[in-house]
Amino acid sequence: MSCDLGHIALAPFTLTDISQKYVDWLNDPEVMHYTRAGSMKHTLASARAYVKAAAADKTSRLFKILLDGAHVGNIRISNLDEINCRAEIAIIVGEKKKWGRGIAPMAIDLAAQYAFRRLKLHKLVAVVLEPNKASRRAFLKAGFVDEGTLRAHYRMGKGYVDAIFMARFSKASNRA
After folding, report:
1. Are 88 and 31 spatial neighbours (Cβ–Cβ below 8 Å)?
2. Which of 70, 104, 107, 167 shows its CA 20 to 30 Å from the CA of 137?
């Protein structure tokens, strides 16, 4: 998939993709601010353990986001529920110089196409923390819609924030 800023692609994220640059993204408070893993200290060893666990998990798919062949972020499809044909999706763009350029919506759309065509899902769900306006915009641009809000659902700092549940359905889906 191409856009005015270059060619966007997804590829499986493997142990060979782990680098100090990747670990630095995981330890960057600005990159990880709205994630559950943002409060942890990450190392090359912890990153390897995460990728090994993701590879062994039959309900998870982990991809690197490539911009003209360069790794700029990750996207994960997880909690794959084969009975109900749905899964969750999450994204981080670690290259802060690339923020605001439309990479996230395109990567989300590519992952959704994979989920609907290859995994035969009918629904993808994203949980966005209410203060994360950029993430919400990216999911909206990628065809997701708001489904509901859970008030004060996640602890953030000394307070709590709402969780916005968003979804995208397969065009072939029967939402009776």
Report:
1. no
2. 70
How would you write 25-92 as a 3-class SS string? HHCCHHHHCCCHHHHCCCCHHHHHHHHHHHHHCCCCEEEEEEECCEEEEEEEEEEEECCCCEEEEEEE
> Is residue 126 packed enough to be buried (19+ CB in 10 Å), middle (13-18) or exposed (0-12)?
buried
Q: Compute the distance between CA of residue 93 and CA of residue 108 in angstroms, rounded to an integer.
A: 11
Q: Specify the pTM.
A: 0.91
CATH number at residue 77: 3.40.630.30
* Dist. CA 27–CA 5, nearest whole Å: 26
Residues 14-39 have a mean pLDDT of 87
Q: Is residue 94 part of a domain?
A: yes
pLDDT of residue 173: 64
